[in-house]
Amino acid sequence: MKVAVVGLGRVGGRVAFCLMRNKNIHELLLINRTMEISEGLYLELASAYPERAKIIKVSYFEDAEMADVVIIAAGIPQFPLQKRIELLETNKRIINDVMDRIKIKDDAIVIVITNPVDIISHIVWKRSGIKSSQVIGFGGYLDTNRLKHLLCKETGKDPNKIECYVVGEHGEDQIPVFREEVLNREEIVYGVRSYVLDVISKLGASMFAPSKLTYDLVDAIIKDEKKVLCVSYYNRNHGMYITWPCIIGRKGIIKTYDIKLTDEELNEFNELIEDRKKYVASIPLLSKKIYLDFIWKADDEITNKNDLAIVVDILRAGTSITHALNNGANSIMPVIEVEDAFKLKKKYKDAIIAGERRDLKVKGFDIGNSPSEFSKEKVRGKDIIFTSSDFPKAIVNAKDSPLILVGSLLNATTIANQAYKIAEERNLDICLVLCEQAIEPYAQEELTFAGVFGSVLKDKCELSGKMKKAITFVEETGMKGCLENAEHARELIEEGLGNDVKFSCRTDTTDAIGIIKKTGSGYRIVALE
Predict the structure, then answer these.
(1) Is 278 in the same domain as 298?
(2) How many CA atoms does the CB half-sphere of 134 hold within 13 Å?
(3) Is 197 exposed, middle or buried (0-12, 13-18, 19+ CB in 10 A)?
(4) Each residue's pLDDT tens digit, 340-361
(5) What CATH number corresponds to the domain at position 56?
(6) Contact criterion met (CB below 8 Å) for 143 and 189
(7) Are 233 and 253 in contact (CB under 8 A)?
(8) CA distance 353 to 368
(9) 76 and 45 in contact (C-beta within 8 Å)?
């Protein structure tokens, strides 16, 4: 396990010192703006642990990309009588400078110590390019131990038998949650909120407890302990990092731990969230917007690992698949070749076999590729083996994406908003994979979807040049005009499939979204929950 400590001041240096004891750490990277500090700390650590000196690496910011766990402790400390929130503007600049200089690998865990930790953790996550569950703010664990100490003094109980938590924030407005009988509850609450100021006034800084408890947090991650600790995590409902008890393991925050707040505690919590909004509002300005683009299957372009991909085939596969899921289909198994569909049918004897070649139903299939064929009566509860001329091949263009959805005009607005929400949560960009040709005359039905999709998100995303043109195309031509001029639409009408065109041009008739999941033998499309 490789661990990097970025920022080697009072806390960061002591965290590195504590981590030297962890035999599961095989490389400890020391990263600081001033190289002399890193070199000096190396000498200290090597003399304290000569038998472990070989694991210490005086490193540069770019070396953080090698680490499995990155601990960010850069920033100015809190001074006597100073609130943590007063550190925000200075530490925001420092952290943005750090994030400009480091890259975090996809599966790394980041622990943020810099104060105010809840807001700084939000900034680090937005800049890191990894899931929010992998960015953990340290502080609530420390506050909980402080609360536990005060309760032990008051009640004389064994600390291991006291259940208490500090929630909301690692700051002066933190909310102590405990059910122990005490003589003066307000005194305990005031004591834990002012604890750090008392330490700073007497010692100059809080250093030893944060360092030891950061060690514990790292150890819980390395050993995948699934331990309940109060940390700062990204709460989707509130759209911000908040301090709360969470279950911690190798992948970071596994899930939150349920605790019940009293009405008074809940009111304090809601007031804290409302107050925090003014600080969180500035955070998106510090990070890049989600980039929205599209590619054409025919160009053999591929999406990358940072793209949420949406495969689009308006006429007709994407529409039929969306309609099937809306009508209760269990799953759709896309295959490229007709022969593969027949082979799969032997394995899944109860499955429906569906699809087309040259727009017409394949001989021996149960149904073709007309959306109306995927009715509730035929598909509810069924698995569907599916092949078409373009759609299954387009999935290959998106194979490197961590998440692949199925787009259609039927769910255009819903999928745009849902894709944005997921992309924001996972720090991804969004790329549409359009199934038809990329040379003029363009496949206008696919371009229409891109324009409609882009219009929903144009104020939230950074748009590629192509996406801007697609939006303008739809705005100037109008939906009806775009689709009437689509070459494939005219071909289907000539083949007597005009009703399929009309069906596929319906907009926002369902909230059903297909997600394409990789399996051992291929892909399976199910409804996004």
Answers:
(1) no
(2) 20
(3) middle
(4) 999 999 999 999 999 999 999 9
(5) 3.90.110.10
(6) no
(7) yes
(8) 9
(9) no
Give CA–CA dist 117/214, Å, rounded. Answer: 13
Short-list 446, 443, 457, CA closest to 504: 446
Token couple for 82: 């100073």
Query: Are the beta carbons of 461 and 290 closer than 8 angstroms?
Result: yes
Q: What mean pLDDT value characterizes the chain?
A: 92
- The pLDDT tens digits of the residues spanning 43-77 come to 999 999 999 999 999 999 999 999 999 999 999 98
CA 49 distance to own-chain centroid = 38
Residue 419 maps to which CATH number? 3.90.1560.10
Hey, is 404 helix, strand or coil? strand
308, containing H or E segment: strand 307-312
Q: How many domains does the chain have?
A: 2
CA distance 310 to 430: 8
Q: In angstroms, rounded to a whole number, what is the distance separating the alpha carbons of residues 321 and 224?
A: 39
Burial level of 99, CB count in 10 A (0-12/13-18/19+)? Answer: buried
Q: What is the pLDDT of residues 161-219, one digit of tens each?
A: 999 999 999 999 999 999 999 989 999 999 999 999 999 999 999 999 999 999 999 99
Q: Which two tokens stand for residue 185?
A: 């509850």
What Å distances lie between residue 152 and 21, 70, 141, 156, 414, CA to CA? 29, 33, 16, 5, 52
Residues 281 and 326 reside in one and the same domain = no
* CA–CA separation, 244 and 57 (whole Å): 34
pLDDT at residue 484 in the model: 67
Q: Tokens 């990894």 correspond to what residue?
A: 130
d(CA 451, CA 433): 13
**Six-digit token string for 314:** 């308006």
CA distances 336 to 309, 311, 356, 387, 389, Å, are: 19, 15, 11, 6, 8
- For residue 414, what is the enclosing H or E element? helix 412-426
Tokens of 216: 């514990």
To the question of pTM greater than 0.85 for the whole model, the response is no
DSSP readout, 211-278?
HHHHHHHHHHHHTT--EEEEEEEEETTTTEEEEEEEEEETTEEEEE---PPPHHHHHHHHHHHHHHHH
238 shares a domain with 122 = yes
Contact between residue 67 and residue 106 where contact means Cβ atoms under 8 Å apart = no
Residues 273 and 319 placed together within one structural domain of the fold = no
CA gap 324, 384 in Å, rounded: 9
Task: Tell me the sheet residues that pair with 430.
Answer: 292, 308
